[in-house]
Specification:
By secondary structure, this protein is mainly α. The chain contains seven helices and two strands. The chain has helices at about 5-30, 40-55, 60-75, 90-100, 110-115, 120-130, 145-150; strands at about 105-110, 140.
């Protein structure tokens, strides 16, 4: 399992890239200059460090709020949040999965549960059959059971120890 520092650094890097691409780069294009954004970039770096610390920290409520804020700011839209499977394997995807599960639904397809857990769809099927994950009555897997499984696997590793 990666060290807490490695996890934090990877999360900061992803949050910084996403924030610059989705928030500051469009402003730079509209303003036709990067000069007015110099202070914003400095502030953004500090804000991203704080967000990452909150997402990985011990305060569950603060972490959940940080996850909701980040998702709302970086993935705005009128449609429910539905990232591609690969997103769940990123540092942010893993932090969100551990803190709030899937933010837009109480059940996910086996493929999404597998991406969140880092296992195959067949692996999820086996976990459901062994009652290690809860099947949702409307199909798929209960998001909260995926989250609970992620948390149970932690055993004091990098997640939740900062």
């Amino acid at each position: 399992m990666p060290s807490p520092t490695t996890v934090h650094t990877a999360l900061v890097g992803q949050l910084l890239r996403l924030s610059e691409q989705r928030l500051l780069d469009p402003l730079e294009i509209l303003l036709q200059s990067a000069d007015p954004l110099t202070t914003a970039r400095t502030y953004l770096r500090a804000a991203v460090e704080t967000q990452a610390a909150q997402l990985l920290g011990r305060d569950e409520q603060l972490a959940r709020q940080a996850a909701a804020r980040v998702i709302g700011a970086l993935y705005p839209g009128d449609e429910p949040f539905d990232p591609p499977l690969e997103w769940w394997r990123t540092p942010l995807g893993q932090a969100v999965a551990r803190r709030i599960g899937h933010p837009a639904t109480e059940a996910v397809p086996y493929s999404v549960a597998g991406a969140m857990l880092g296992v195959t769809r067949q692996g999820v099927h086996d976990l459901v059959n062994r009652h290690k994950l809860d099947r949702h009555p409307d199909g798929g897997v209960r998001t909260e059971s995926v989250r609970a499984r992620l948390l149970a696997r932690e055993d004091g590793n990098a997640w939740g120890t900062t």
